[in-house]
Amino acid sequence: MNILILGCGHHQLHGIISLSENGHSVYGVDKNPNSIAKPYLTYFINLSVHDFKGISSYIENSDFKINLVVSLGVEASV
Q1: How many whole angstroms separate alpha carbon 64 and alpha carbon 78?
Q2: Mean pLDDT of 18-25
Q3: Which of 5, 6, 60, 65 lies 20 to 30 Å from 19, alpha-carbon distance?
Q4: What is the pLDDT of residue 75?
Q5: What is the rounded end-to-end Cα distance, in angstroms, of the chain?
Q6: 19 exposure class (CB count in 10 Å sphere: 0-12, 13-18, 19+)
Q7: Could you report the per-residue pLDDT of 26-65, keeping only the tens digit for each?
Q8: Which runs of E-coded beta strand occur in the chain?
């Protein structure tokens, strides 16, 4: 499954690693280009999680299909 995670910081790290280790393709969005979870992602999108239009446009113009969008550690990533 292709899963898009909103936020790739400390609060999302464990979930991203777990999803990746369980065979999912994990795509992450974060404004920090040096996000701590970046090495565990299938693909990294360097945008703010608040930039809904930018994220939507990026996904629509990409070669991958997202099956699920998740916000882990909601308060910190939204």
Answers
A1: 23
A2: 97
A3: 60
A4: 59
A5: 23
A6: buried
A7: 999 999 999 999 999 999 999 999 999 999 999 999 999 9
A8: 2-6, 25-29, 43-45, 68-70
